[in-house]
Amino acid sequence: MKKLFVILGLSMILGAGFASCAQAYSTEGALYYNEGLDFYSRGEYSKAIQSFKSAIEKDPDFTDAYYNLGSLFEYLKSYQSAISCFSKINQLDPNDSETIIKLAELYYKVGNYERALFYITKIKDTDEFASRAKELKNQIVVAQQKVAAKNALANVNKANENNKKIIDKFSGPTGLAINSQGVLFVASYTDNCIYKIMPNGQTQLYTKSNMLGGPIGLAFDAADNLYVANYAKNNILKINKAGQIYTFMSNITNPYYLIIKDNNMYITEQGNNTVLRYKLY
Q1: Residues 110, 23 share a domain
Q2: Would the pTM count as exceeding 0.85?
Q3: How far is residue 220's CA from residue 265's CA, in Å, rounded to a whole number?
Q4: Co-location of 79 and 108 in the same domain
Q5: pLDDT tens digits for range 145-179
Q6: Could you tell me which residues are beta bridge partners of residue 279?
Q7: 196 & 83 share domain
């Protein structure tokens, strides 16, 4: 295909590839084609598109008209329409490497990387568009890696969502602890009570007492005694297996979290910005 010089002010996408005046086509088809070039040069793109389409209607094998129409669609970012035009040229002339690289680039733009690679493989290493094809292939590899990473993250998020189960709703839930029987205990700061959730998911009120004041941290010792960081009352409570409540430690300013390891209890004392260690036995 013969090319037209780049027209001042036009994008390189269009200017570099626009075909020259039609040759060896019907007079009527050539008139429509040249009319399309004229409309295009004046920036009347809708009229140019219609003129190129009219030229193709008169001459269905009018490759120059297809090329200019496809280039105009690409310029207007109507990539699927551009693909249709260049695909028709590829049918008429399967060996035209410029059309092949164009199709590869267009499929890349619409995100169809598999199809883009299909056309890239048709470009030989000795072809004038070989370097362009190689650069596009590298871009596709990077794009595919990004898509793979995005899909992997989506799959992880989906798996996390599928694995998530709301056991129950509480008012101001804070600390959690599990005893030796696998029963989950939940402190409710707002309600000043402690719930337990059985292994079958059933929720029960474990204790509600005036001794509780803003319970937060929970921890079990080896004998399944439950300790409670009683934030608002500045103490640590102990609840034995029978459900009896005792004040275990006093004068702790805003105890927050509890951890019991071996015979040691560790307490975060928020009011004094300290961590306390207490030997249980």
Answers
A1: yes
A2: no
A3: 10
A4: yes
A5: 888 888 887 877 776 777 766 667 777 899 999 99
A6: 264
A7: no
| Count of domains forming the chain | 2
Tell me the β-bridge partners of 151.
none
Interatomic CA distance for residues 29 and 59, integer angstroms: 6
* Per-residue three-class SS string for 179-191: CCCCCEEEEECCC
Give pLDDT tens digits for 208-265. 999 999 999 999 999 999 999 999 999 999 999 999 999 999 999 999 999 999 889 9
Question: Residue 120 sits in which domain range?
Answer: 12-159
In the structure encoding, which two tokens stand for residue 221, read together?
Answer: 């010792």
191/181 Cα distance (integer angstroms): 25
**Helix 27-41 and helix 63-75: axis angle, to 10°?**
20
Tokens of 279: 């030997």
Distances (CA, A) of 208 to 5, 216, 257: 87, 14, 20
Q: Which residue has the tokens 């307490």?
A: 267
